[in-house]
């Protein structure tokens, strides 16, 4: 049976479009390029800590980790071989954690500081951005670290490597108006994996400080994620714990927010051991945050790292 010429042309066009899209993602997309550079620095620090101390304490999570843990400061002041292996929350819980699992070895410790929102929303823990980062890093196991993804899910990864229309329109607008192509710069990446920014934004300007903070409940997908993380850590000989990232809360709401976070940790503790800080991840000093309620300034990251270090020493 002869295949119609139009069908062949359309198939060829689809394949070509897929190849061009993947090439854009891997070698042009500014956000992916940023995270590729950041990941390389993080992995180099990780190996430096392993060579010096014989083991690594890797902290994984979204950008609250990236902007919150100053591993170089911790190593200098407390001789703890911490590595900041944070990525961005948009990568999803699987990729953020999978990056750490790919970097760590038997006898290491992985501290999951995954944003609560990734564990309370009943959504897929693998995202398009996470898949793109996994392949861009050359670490496809980042999104399949429990080796349990069905073949049909892996087959559609090629479609997840394509840039979305929103990304292309955003890039076109930035080029047209000569704006920075990505919000953050690798020049601001610090030894140890901490990212800093001089950007300051009034993220709390329209916040309703009289409103009660919302309760947090682990979703079904969040529970499943924590279960497989514990199982995978045990199989790899990697100790896994959970600690809350720091988030800004107005002083009027801080006390209640800490109570909510304490109850959230009670839920997480059913699946993983948890490290509990006195503030339960709630920090009410506005000046310690930069451009979002979860991105600490360099000074804020030092404060957070000091508290985190003492917690590690108590549980070491």
Brief synopsis:
This protein has helices at 5-27, 30-53, 63-66, 71-78, 92-103, 116-120, 128-136, 151-155, 157-160, 165-176, 220-236, 251-268, 298-314, and strands at 57-60, 82-84, 109-112, 239-243, 247-248, 274-275, 282-283. The chain has 316 residues and is an alpha/beta fold. The chain has a single domain, classed as Rossmann fold (3-Layer(aba) Sandwich).
Provide a descriptive summary of the structure in words.
A five-stranded parallel sheet has the order 2-1-3-4-6. It has a two-stranded parallel sheet with strand order 5-7. The longest helix is centred in the N-terminal third of the chain and has 24 residues, at 30-53. It is 50% helix and 7% strand. It is of the alpha/beta class and 316 residues long. The chain has helices spanning 5-27, 30-53, 63-66, 71-78, 92-103, 116-120, 128-136, 151-155, 157-160, 165-176, 220-236, 251-268, 298-314; strands spanning 57-60, 82-84, 109-112, 239-243, 247-248, 274-275, 282-283. It has a single domain (35-147, 173-198, 213-314), classed as Rossmann fold.
Label this structure with key terms.
316 residues, alpha/beta, Rossmann fold, five-stranded parallel sheet, two-stranded parallel sheet, 13 helices, 50% helix
Unreliable residue stretches = none
Biggest pleated sheet: 5 strands, parallel
Strand content: 5-15%
- The overall number of domains is 1
Present the secondary structure layout:
Elements: H1 5-27, H2 30-53, E1 57-60, H3 63-66, H4 71-78, E2 82-84, H5 92-103, E3 109-112, H6 116-120, H7 128-136, H8 151-155, H9 157-160, H10 165-176, H11 220-236, E4 239-243, E5 247-248, H12 251-268, E6 274-275, E7 282-283, H13 298-314
Parallel strand pairs: 1-2, 1-3, 3-4, 4-6, 5-7
Helix pairs in contact: 4-13, 5-7
């Amino acid at each position: 049976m002869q295949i119609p010429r139009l069908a062949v042309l359309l198939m060829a066009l689809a394949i070509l479009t897929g190849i061009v899209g993947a090439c854009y993602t891997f070698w042009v997309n500014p956000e992916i390029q940023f995270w590729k550079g950041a990941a390389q620095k993080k992995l180099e620090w990780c190996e430096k800590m392993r060579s010096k101390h014989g083991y690594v304490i890797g902290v994984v999570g979204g950008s609250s980790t990236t902007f919150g843990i100053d591993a170089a400061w911790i190593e200098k002041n407390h001789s703890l071989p911490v590595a900041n292996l944070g990525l961005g929350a948009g990568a999803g819980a699987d990729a953020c954690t999978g990056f750490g699992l790919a970097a760590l070895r038997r006898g290491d410790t992985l501290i999951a500081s995954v944003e609560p929102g990734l564990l309370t929303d009943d959504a897929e823990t693998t995202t398009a951005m996470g898949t793109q980062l996994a392949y861009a890093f050359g670490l496809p196991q980042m999104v399949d670290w429990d080796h349990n993804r069905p073949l049909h899910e892996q087959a559609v990864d090629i479609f997840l490597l394509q840039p979305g229309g929103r990304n292309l329109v955003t890039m076109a607008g930035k080029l047209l108006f000569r704006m920075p192509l990505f919000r953050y710069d690798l020049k601001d990446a610090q030894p140890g994996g901490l990212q800093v920014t001089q950007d300051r934004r009034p993220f709390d300007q329209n916040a309703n400080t009289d409103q009660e903070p919302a309760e947090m409940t682990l979703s079904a997908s969040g529970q499943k994620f924590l279960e497989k993380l514990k199982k995978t850590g045990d199989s790899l000989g990697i100790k896994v714990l959970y600690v809350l990232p720091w988030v800004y809360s107005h002083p009027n709401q801080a006390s209640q927010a800490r109570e909510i976070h304490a109850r959230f940790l009670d839920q997480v503790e059913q699946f993983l051991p948890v490290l509990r800080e006195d503030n339960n991840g709630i920090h009410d000093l506005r000046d310690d945050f930069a451009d979002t309620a979860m991105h600490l300034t360099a000074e804020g990251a030092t404060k957070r790292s000091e508290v985190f270090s003492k917690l590690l020493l108590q549980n070491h």
